[in-house]
Amino acid sequence: MKTKTALLLVDIQNDFLPPDGSLAVPEGRDILPHVYRLLADRQWDLVVASQVRGVCSCCADHPHGHVSFASTHHAEPFTSIPVPKLHAPGETVQQMLWPDHCVQGTHGCEFEAGLKGKLGQDAVVIQKARGTNVAVDAYSAFADNQYTFFTPLIKTLHGAGIETVVIVGLATDYCVRFTAIDSCKFGFRTLVVKEAVRGVDASATEKVLGELQDWGCELVSVEDVV
Ligand code: VGL
Question: Of 56, 109, 128, 144, which one is the catalytic site residue?
Fold first, then answer.
């Protein structure tokens, strides 16, 4: 019997896409034809799209900026600083600082237009943990970076009887990486589609993909899974 398989689309949102995204992943748009093909050419048991939805550092509706926004700390994006560890007074964790991105209610937060049109009615959207707590970043679609909060993704996958998760999206070295590792840890057979991921730091891609294999992920091509 074929195992039940989910396609997991990680953060394919306007802010991660060139040319206008505030945190555009180089060559991020190159994944789109592959993603569209995966959606069109196979009947998936489940399609899940994760979405970063951050709170705003400059908007009156939200009193505090997100801990991952450089603007919150009046610091330079793409630098890293220690920030308080949750539930551990006096302890810190390193946080990479990003340009403001995927602020809720903005165009940058929305799924890429072509993808939006191709997501069927049954697709499940998983809001990343980021939207619920300004004090912690959330790369994995399963949980925040300090594992204090889990999204409904694990319940959604188990509820649908999924055993295999096929991962595509952005970015290889952050949200794809954390999501794929968590998927392995939770015991899913985890396939990462090479043509359908791109990294913030393209020079790190080979190393990250090797690390994912060490965790038990399989690297596959679109052809292998359609
Ligand atoms: C991501 C950096 C910051 C990602 C999200 O989706 O990979 N990267 N926030």
Answer: 128
